[in-house]
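sry for the spam today, last one i promise. struct tokens for design, 405 residues
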């Protein structure tokens, strides 16, 4: 007679072994990413700047309801060691004090230009429209796109521009130093960063043989000519994850794109609280669902197996072994499940520890919260897929966007 419980234990053991193998792979991929991530040229080290000082750059900042962050952002950009630039802030119909703060910051400052985005045209989503409006009003030969909740060092513009021109690039982007403002964000985002930094690592993006492109929307500099040739933000107007889509177009068009480490140049928020964190996680899975439902469901199941199952099987094996007193074959397989689950859980914590150690974003002891991060990421994906069975929408920056229509 078939022992169903034994089959289930073996099946779980195989899944957990697979999870362990993937986490080990992610750890080495993460190490490779950090090892191969270049840093930008420091402008003050250049002996011959040549015509670089003649370049005019337009900084474009889309802003919607950013009253808490916009002042620090603009103040940091006004304090640059490079003097040939303009700051274009496009107010995307803010309902808070953003516009009022911007007007007080301008105060006859010729560097600052404030533009009203106006009504968003049909089928434009996210910040694509204000970015496009910023471009239409720009005077620079180079465009520097950043977000309203960023804080820049005083050499942010010069280092990025000098690096772009000295390395003969068409586009560059930088991985910012992420700010984790709340306890729950500090628990969740390091886990998510492992996958983001492994999937879109400089080792892949900077390899011309790999057709993978990605931009960090909070920091990328692009030649205006190249930006126009790839179709501007209008070419990705329906994409809620526009930076990834735009980066992919750059690579597909054959332009030179390079990703750098930028923690010394800029700090940025990916999520500000649990609400924005939850919506940001939904923002990752929803576009995938409407491009390929089957792949999104498989991905969600895979995330659960990878992130949550090792903890569940470890708990199950510990409890079951403590109850079963005999030394039969069932117990032997339970011990095997216990060992594989323990290895998988250990690899999760080790990878999270390494991520925090290298990124240096906050206290490394937060690696102990890996289980919380894994559970929240997995639940958010599952909940998003279930909710999409009835409707395809996501709330982003106080707006609701509908997919599949």
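last one done:
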């Amino acid at each position: 007679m078939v022992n169903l419980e034994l089959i289930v234990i073996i099946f779980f053991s195989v899944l957990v072994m697979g999870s362990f193998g993937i986490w080990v792979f992610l750890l080495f991929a993460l190490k490779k990413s950090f090892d191969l991530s270049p840093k930008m040229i420091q402008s003050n080290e250049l002996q011959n700047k040549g015509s670089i000082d003649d370049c005019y750059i337009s900084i474009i900042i889309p802003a919607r309801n950013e009253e808490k962050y916009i002042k620090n952002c603009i103040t940091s950009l006004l304090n640059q060691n490079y003097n040939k630039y303009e700051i274009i802030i496009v107010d995307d119909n803010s309902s808070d004090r953003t516009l009022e703060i911007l007007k007080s910051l301008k105060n006859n400052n010729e560097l600052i230009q404030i533009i009203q985005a106006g009504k968003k045209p049909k089928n434009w989503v996210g910040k694509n429209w204000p970015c496009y409006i910023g471009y239409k009003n720009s005077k620079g030969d180079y465009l520097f796109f950043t977000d309203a909740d960023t804080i820049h060092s005083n050499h942010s513009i010069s280092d990025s521009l000098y690096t772009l021109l000295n390395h003969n690039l068409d586009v560059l982007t930088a991985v910012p130093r992420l700010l984790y403002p709340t306890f729950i964000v500090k628990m969740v985002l390091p886990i998510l960063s492992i996958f983001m930094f492994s999937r879109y690592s400089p080792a892949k993006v900077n390899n011309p043989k790999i057709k993978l492109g990605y931009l960090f929307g909070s920091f990328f500099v692009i030649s205006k000519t190249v930006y126009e040739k790839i179709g501007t933000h209008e070419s990705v107007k329906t994409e809620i994850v526009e930076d990834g889509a735009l980066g992919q177009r750059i690579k597909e068009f054959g332009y030179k794109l390079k990703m750098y480490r930028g923690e010394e140049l800029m700090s940025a928020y990916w999520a500000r609280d649990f609400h924005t964190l939850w919506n940001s996680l939904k923002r990752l899975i929803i576009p995938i669902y409407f491009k390929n439902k089957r792949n999104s469901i498989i991905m969600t199941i895979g995330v659960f197996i990878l992130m949550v199952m090792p903890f569940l099987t470890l708990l199950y094996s510990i409890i079951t072994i403590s109850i079963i007193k005999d030394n039969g074959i069932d117990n032997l397989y339970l011990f095997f499940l216990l060992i594989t689950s323990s290895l998988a859980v250990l690899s999760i914590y080790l990878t999270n520890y390494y991520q925090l150690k290298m990124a240096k974003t906050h206290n490394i002891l937060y690696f102990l919260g890996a289980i919380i991060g894994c559970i929240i990421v997995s639940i958010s994906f599952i909940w998003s897929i279930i909710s999409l069975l009835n409707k395809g929408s996501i709330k982003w920056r106080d707006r609701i966007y509908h997919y599949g229509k």
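The chain has two domains: 4-31+281-402, 43-166+209-255. ok im logging off now
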